[in-house]
Amino acid sequence: MAEQKKLLGEERRTWILQQLKNTTSPITGSELAVKTNVSRQVIVGDITILKAKNEPIIATSQGYLYLKQNAVIQNFERTVACRHSLEDTERELNLLVDHGVTVKDVKVEHPVYGDLTASIMVSNRQEVKQFMDKLRSTKASLLAELTGGIHLHTLASSSKEALSNAEAALGDAGFLINA
């Protein structure tokens, strides 16, 4: 196999942006690093530069995604307040995606830093499994561990009814914090 050419600076960022725009699946930093013959840390820097140029790139547990602005499907969003143990995380996420809802993010209120938000972007059980596998393999902590399990999720769906059904299911499972 011939040695792969190392893409430099702006040429590499242009290539990365094109790759992200041309797919609907997340691409990991490691995949981009291999294809451009640089380190994953260089890719992290490139993504930061692209975000600073207002490119709508988000980092998810499955990799980087380019958020396409011209989506025709009308999306409805709702924020829900939840509380549960670490052990119930997978159950909560599966419950939500089983109702046709995308879990966009998680937010907690930190006493020093204020609101902390992390992208989740799971829409089906396979993505939930990937998220949980990564959580376990990295031994990372959930943001909700900083707040005794209290957290907010931004939920999205093409249907208001799906959001209402998902919220009701959270209540039935005992995960919903009632206002």
Task: Fill in the keyword field for this structure.
four-stranded antiparallel sheet; single chain; alpha+beta; Histidine-containing Protein, Chain: A; Arc Repressor Mutant, subunit A; two-stranded antiparallel ribbon; 179 residues; 23% strand; 6 strands
Topology:
Layout: H1 9-21, H2 29-36, H3 40-52, E1 57-60, E2 63-66, E3 76-83, H4 89-97, E4 102-110, E5 114-122, H5 125-138, E6 150-157, H6 160-173
State the end-to-end distance.
61 Å
Describe the biggest sheet?
A: 4 strands, antiparallel
Q: Provide the gyration radius in Å.
A: 18 Å
| Residues in helix, % | 25-40%
CATH superfamily of the largest domain: 3H domain
What is the name of the CATH topology of the largest domain? Histidine-containing Protein, Chain: A
Give the number of domains: 2
Tally of strands: 6
Shape: elongated
Structural class: alpha+beta
Polypeptide structure, described:
The protein has 179 residues and is an alpha+beta fold. The chain folds into 2 domains: 9-66, Winged helix-like DNA-binding domain superfamily/Winged helix DNA-binding domain (Arc Repressor Mutant, subunit A, Orthogonal Bundle), CATH 1.10.10; 76-173, Histidine-containing Protein, Chain: A. The protein has 6 helices and 6 strands; from the N terminus they run H-H-H-E-E-E-H-E-E-H-E-H. Strand 4 and strand 5 (114-122) form a beta hairpin. Helix 1 (9-21) packs across helix 3 (40-52), helix 2 (29-36) packs across helix 3 and helix 4 (89-97) runs antiparallel to helix 6 (160-173). It is elongated. It starts with 8 loop residues before the first helix and ends in a 6-residue tail after the last helix.
